[in-house]
Each structure stands twice: as structure tokens, then as C-alpha cells.
Design brief:
- 31% of the residues lie in helices and 22% in strands.
- With 541 residues, it is of the alpha/beta class.
- It folds into 3 domains: 14-75, Urease, subunit C, domain 1, CATH 2.30.40.10; 83-88 and 217-539, Alpha-Beta Barrel (TIM Barrel); 126-211, Diaminopimelate Epimerase, Chain A, domain 1 (Roll).
- The strands form 5 sheets. Strands 10, 17, 18, 19, 20, 21, 22, 23 and 24 form a 9-stranded mixed beta sheet that branches. The chain has a 6-stranded mixed beta sheet with strand order 4-3-9-25-26-27, with no helix packed on it.
- A hairpin with a 7-residue loop joins β3 and β4.
- The protein is globular and about 85 Å long.
Amino acid sequence: MKNLILPLVLLVLGVSCNPKQEVDYIVHNANIYTVDSTFSKACCIAVKNGEIVGVGANADLFEDFKSDSLVDALGKTIVPGLIDAHCHFYGLGLNQQVVDLVGTQSFDEVLDRVQSFYDNNPSLTVVQGRGWDQNDWAVKEFPTNLELNKMFANIPVVLERVDGHAYLVNNAALNLAGIDKTTVVVGGKIIRENSGHATGVLVDAPMALVDAVLPKPSKEIQIQALKEAQEICFDYGLTTVNDAGLNKDVIELIDSLQQVGDLKIKVYAMVSNTKANLDYYLDKGIVKTNRLNVRSVKVYGDGALGSRGAALKEEYSDHEGHFGAMITPADKMESLAARIAATDYQMNTHAIGDSANIVALRAYEKALEGKKDRRWKIEHAQVLTENDFDYFEKGVIPSIQPTHATSDMYWAEDRLGTRVKGAYAYKTLLDKAGIVALGTDFPVERVSPFLTFYAAVARQDLEKFPAGGFQMKDALSREETLKGMTIWAAYSNFEENEKGSIEVGKKADFTVLSHDIMTVSTDSIPLIKAEQVFVEGERVK
């Protein structure tokens, strides 16, 4: 008996003498969805040096950790820092400095907003705006520039459609860009009158002719845009954004602002598919810091469905003889895929129409033969024919935006007819791929990840249309949706070991919500607010 007592005493003394680890702060009394492999819950987080060092029950963590800073979460819900897997972060910032045309109900309202903006900014040498959508108007046809020419005879006006795949420009802008009766551009369309004169609407590729002659934003404006975009994103609980298409100068500006602490949000940068960008980054290799990850190329397969630029296998149901257009033709898609596959970079292809999707998927299959764990993405994966879904079983990740379904459902069937059954098929894509990465495509859609969550689960817009939800067989569960905005999005960025869940060893990126997103009524999901946001352990909201 004496032989047993001494080891027991020593064991007790050893446990009692084990010092508690000092940490920066402990968040307790929380309702935490860790989004780990078992989707477990916890109520306490210990953070030190920007990393999570403890997760569990209050009693357990207070046994092991101590801190002078205790944060009582008051029962609030905490989720991993939210990730937007497809957006235009820099574009959102620039949009704060142009005419906001989102929600205009007629072309007359567009003209009124443009005039008002110019009246308040009379020193402008170019008037720019974004957000119009003819599908929201009583007359659902592309406008012409006749009124703009009367209002602005000498100042170029460039108004971008909500999806970023069409411009309406006045004659001053057309002349500046050198667009006339003889101009032909592959990969898009210059809408013309019967006389051959351009109406001012440019779809996809011809937009680049205007871009080439527009004044470039100054560095000061670029910095302001990035900071304003960050403020908006933090307000909605986002801690990482995947910017779908950036040039080298903006990527390097983001890096410099992050290095000095002026930009704290994390950015997964998709390099825009230009010769200069590819020559630089594919040779340089992956660029990775705590807050910046450059390891992917954004490629445009086709245009958008709303502007009839999406490439379809069969003609548009509402436009006889029109099939949309490939921005990157099949042969160039294959050669580009082969070039990227020879590096460590990921290829992320914008593909809306079923023709664009199959072109990209076939190019992926050929380029990746024998290669493992490349995690190439199809951005949008919006319209597919039945047999083409099987390609996603081969390691290709669908990067999708649930609010596109609830925005497009009013007119998608007009464009597609019965093909709409294979569109916005998020659950089908999940079943094939095993994961989906969720985003918004802001500023095409609104920034709120809670609208993303609502659209994925309810498949309705804020007016609760349609009754019962749009093609509910492709709705996602709440657990699937939260994973798509956290751990699956992180996985799609090769960052699942550092973020996407609340686990020991990962960065302390997390968001405190006003309501329990997993149990609150469906109608209340869009009303959820991000009350606090932490990046690398630092509270940024």
C-alpha cells in the first residue's frame, strides 16, 4: 500500500504545480461553431501572438490558461473568420468613387444619377459609373447612347453594367477609343444599329478598347479604394477576400499596405490573365505572406448571362441565332492550362454558359493528367448540361455565388428555357466535388455574406420570391453553407491549415455574430450583423 501512495502524491503534486500558460486574452461564455472535422462546438478560445492556443469548455481552458484580458462573449455566436471566395475587392473600393447605378429602375433614372454626380463633381474629365441592369427596367433592352450624347457631347462617359461584362459609353468615349463602323473585336460584341453605327453598348472584349484610353487612378486613389473596401468588408465580418483578377501593380500595393499595417484584411489574389502578369508571376512562383497569397491565375472563359455574353451550346431562348461568345477560345484555353499546369499556380476560370464550362473542364482534364491536388477552380459554374457535372469528381472545385441564383431567377429561364434546370445547381455541384467555395462576386452583388448564406439555404430573395424557393433540390444545408464560407473556401486557397476553422494552431481569425446563424429563423438570416471581427488575434471591428 505504501508503495502506491508515494507515486499518487507525486502525481497530484505534479499536476497542481503545472503552471498555467499566460496568453494575450481568453474569450469565454461564447457559442462557438469551430467548423472542425466534426463540426464541434465550444465556448472558450485562448489566443496568443495572433494564434489560437486553446479551444474548449470554459472550465477546461481556465485550468490551462490565464490572462489579464478576459472577454465575456455574453453567449454570442462565434464562427471562423468569414471568407469571400470570389469577389472584386479593389473594384469595390474604386466603385465608391463613381456613379452608383445599382437598383436603378429605368434608364431615365440612370441618366438622372449621372447628371447629378457630374453636377457635384464638375471638374471631372471622364464620368464613370457602375451598376445598371436593363433586366430591372420595364423595357428590358439594352439602352443606346443618344441621350448621353446630348448631355455630354465632349466628356467621355463610361457606365459599366452590374455584372462588369458590358459598358454603355457615349460617342466621345467611342471616338477616344477609336471605335467606328470598321472596328471588329473577337470575344464579344459591339452592339450596332442597322446603319452600322455603334449604339454605345460594348459587351466583353471591346470594353478593353475603352479601358486602354481611360485615365489610370493615381496611387492615392488606389490606396483610398483599398482602405474603403477593407472597411466595408470588415463591417460584414469578412477576414479574407479572394480578389478575382488583379494586376501586378495593385498586388504589390496591397502587399506594401499590409506590411506597414495599413491593410489588415487577408487577400487571396488571382492574377489577371495578361502576358505581363503571367510572365512575371509564373516565373517568380508563389508569393505568400501572413496576409497575402498569390498563387492563382484568373481566366475569363466567357461573358455573363444577363448581357447575353455567356457562351451556350445552343442558342439563347430569347435571342434567335445568338450563342454568346468565348472570351478565351478552346485552343487558347488548352495552351494556357498547359502553361499554368507546368507551374505551382492554380487556374481559376470564369465560366457561366454550358459551352464555356465544358471547354474549361476539358482543358483542365488534359492539362492536369497525372497531377495531384491542384485544386483548380471553375468560377461561377453557372450553367451545365447533365453529363458535364461529372468532371467535378476529378478534383475541380466549384467556386459559386448563391446570390446570383436569387438575382437572376427573374429572367434566367427567358435566356435558357428548359436548360435552367441545370443552372445554379449548387447541391449537385457539392455532391460531385465534395466541397464548394462560396462568395458573392461583389460589387456585382452586395457584400453581405449573410445574404450569401440566406440565398444558399432559402433560395429566395428578400421579398421571399419565389414561394417555396428556386429549384430547392439545389439548396445547401446551413452546415454546408458555413463550411463553404470558411473551411472549404480556405481549402480552395491551399490555406486550410492556417484558417477556416477555430482550432489550436490556426490563426485567430474569427467573427462574432449578433445571432446564431445556425438556429435563427431563415427569414432572420439577412438581418444578422457582424458585431466584432478579429484578424490574427487583433480586433479590427
